[in-house]
């Protein structure tokens, strides 16, 4: 196999894995802790940045096909492409790591069933571009001894009682399958 073919396989595999790891949590969980997974990813921020710079250097020609012969704009375009490329790869990498932590949390290791009955401390509602409304609540869960922000199916009021049977995964993240 040629080096260019193996580079193509690595390039496309990275983006396919990223998309899969971003879709799976949304498709199979009705309740999960995305903030906790993102915080784990942030711990490896420098490592992700090093990966993004390396990935950009290796795949620069495949990512951006912009060419300019203008002596004034060429350096500006090169600098913009450098920062934009590294930023995009960094974001994809962070999404990949967070998604993989969510998948690992629910698939491997010891899984514990917990019964939650807690008062809602905070609520948050977001609306996506396509109009889908997402509801988030913050509750105190004694089994993990911390406040947890959960994505839930319906709107809750502050001080309303949230009760549900959830799972505590191997990475200490809470989730529930649909």
Would you mind describing this structure in some detail?
This protein has 178 residues and is α+β, with helices and mostly antiparallel strands. Helix content is 51%, strand content 27%. The protein contains 4 helices and 6 strands. The protein has helices at residues 3-28, 34-43, 45-63, 73-107, and strands at 29-32, 112-127, 133-141, 146-152, 161-168, 174-177. The chain has a 6-stranded antiparallel beta sheet. Helix 1 crosses helix 4 and helix 3 (45-63) packs across helix 4 (73-107). It starts with a helix and ends with a strand. The mean pLDDT is 79.
Assign the structural class, choosing from mainly alpha, mainly beta, alpha/beta, alpha+beta, or little secondary structure: alpha+beta
N- to C-terminal distance: 43 Å
The shape, in one word, is elongated
N-to-C series of helices and strands: HEHHHEEEEE
Largest sheet: 6 strands, antiparallel
What is the count of DSSP helices, taking H or I runs of 4+ residues?
A: 4
The proportion of strand residues reads 25-35%
Average of per-residue pLDDT values:
79
Q: Report helical residue fraction.
A: 40-55%
User: How is the largest sheet built, in terms of strand order?
Assistant: 1-6-5-2-3-4
Number of strands: 6
Low-confidence segments: none
Radius of gyration: 20 Å
């Amino acid at each position: 196999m040629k080096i260019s073919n193996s580079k193509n396989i690595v390039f496309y595999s990275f983006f396919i894995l990223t998309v899969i790891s971003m879709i799976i949590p949304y498709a199979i969980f009705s309740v999960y802790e995305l903030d906790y997974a993102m915080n784990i990813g942030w711990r490896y921020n420098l490592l992700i940045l090093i990966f993004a710079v390396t990935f950009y250097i290796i795949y620069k020609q495949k990512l951006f096909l912009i060419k300019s012969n203008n002596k004034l704009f060429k350096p500006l375009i090169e600098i913009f492409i450098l920062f934009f490329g590294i930023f995009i790869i960094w974001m994809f990498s962070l999404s990949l790591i967070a998604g993989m932590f969510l998948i690992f949390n629910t698939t491997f290791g010891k899984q514990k069933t917990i019964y939650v009955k807690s008062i809602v401390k905070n609520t948050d509602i977001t609306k996506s571009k396509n109009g889908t409304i997402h509801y988030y609540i913050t509750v105190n869960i004694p089994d993990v001894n911390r406040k947890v922000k959960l994505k839930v199916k319906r709107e809750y009021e502050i001080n309303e009682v949230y009760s549900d049977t959830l799972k505590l995964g191997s990475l200490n993240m809470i989730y529930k399958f649909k």
